What we know:
Elements: E1 6-10, E2 16-19, H1 25-37, E3 39-45, H2 51-61, E4 66-68, E5 74-80, E6 92-93, H3 98-108, E7 115-118, H4 129-137, E8 142-145, E9 149-154, E10 164-165, H5 172-182, E11 188-192, H6 200-207, E12 212-215, E13 218-222, E14 232-233, H7 238-250, E15 255-262, H8 269-276, E16 280-287, E17 294-300, H9 321-330, E18 334-337, H10 350-360, E19 364-368, E20 371-375, E21 382-385, H11 390-399, E22 407-410, H12 422-428, E23 432-436
Parallel strand pairs: 2-15, 3-14, 6-7, 10-11, 21-22
Antiparallel strand pairs: 1-22, 1-23, 3-5, 4-5, 7-9, 8-9, 11-13, 12-13, 15-17, 16-17, 18-20, 19-20
Helix pairs in contact: 1-2, 1-3, 1-6, 3-5, 4-5, 7-9, 7-11, 9-10, 9-11
Amino acid sequence: MSGPIGWLASGGGPLHGEVLVPGDKSVSHRAIMLAALADGVSRVEGFLEGEDTRATAAAFAGMGVRIDTPSPSQRIVHGVGMNGLSAPRKAIDCGNAGTGMRLLAGLLAGQRFDSVLVGDESLSRRPMRRIIEPLARMGAEIRAEAGDLPPLRIRGGRHLRGMLHTPAIASAQVKSAILLAGLQAEGVTEVREAHPTRDYTERMLQAFGWPIEFGPGWARLAGGHRLAATDIVVPADFSSAAFFLVAASIVPGSDLVLRSVGINPRRTGLLSVLRLMGADIVEAGRRGQGDDAVADLRVRHAVLRGIDVPEALVADMIDEFPILFVAAAAARGTTRIAGASELRVKESDRITAMAQGLQALGIGVAETPDGAVIEGGALAAGRIESAGDHRIAMSFAVAGQIAAGPVRIGDCANVATSFPGFAELARSCGMNVRDTDLA
């Protein structure tokens, strides 16, 4: 994996200008997967050139799908149809992509051939029980290592049956794995959630012509249909834009525009929370339709205040919590986060990683089982270990912009999995983030 050994982040100055962040990772994964199984040729524009999404494209190339790259951020996928995949000659390497592994497990559970899903050291520590158990109830046979950890060994030729699944913990990845298995299952597959999660899989299936019904917190489809090739334009990733939204909010004098950001409400919980905290973020130039719209977001510095984060918004911002911790640290007063236990099984235990990192910078943080209590205050200089987690690394790069001295951040290589070129883009709008050897 490529990337800097570490970063040195410190106060640079106000953020100004216009920024276009890379394409949405969640959409990029799903676009490749469904285009590969579609009948015909699909074009994907705005594809995220990150290591996670490239791993997904490589997985399908290894199963006989021709994928052309006419230029960066473009893919032309020659679909092979629902039953056209070939048995991979070796284990499928998902890299650091938990989304890729979980969704692939669902897609491959009903294929006629055996397959093995492996990941890097970080992904190999992430539990997979929440997809193994429901897929097994559908008839899949998936074996994992002790503790339900990868590699995942999926037996082919299984007869899958549709079912109703009501997950105890809301997770878009679990929901998506079940729905994708349902494409090859007999009967109806339905997922009902206590709290609505991101609906990109549902919308992508609809775009590729699969009959599906869905609404906030539920989705239902029947197996046995076909996917039809289509063209997909991937919006700029809100999760990537989030770092700049917070940076411009907390650095005095900032006035920044983020272009063409996807504003699906199942992804933009952080936007609502930042506004509750007093952020000055204005949406302009909305284009597209409904929940697939994009808009330009103008963010200016504002004095943030601590709040009790509404639990109803947690599922809509699960990837943005690391940078929310930084916003809370910069706010006046106390911020309380609850209902976010999912953070403990991400690329790292993000609650502990963020709590320890902020404490190292002089911020009072008390962990709870499903969240934290953060006392806003002045950030000091310090050294942070990102635990190989890209969102932890980028969050502390933002924190360094308002710290009293340099913030040294170790183990930043995994940023390339989701946001290649983050440091360069950050510098282009006024942030001070540079590569350094922390040895």
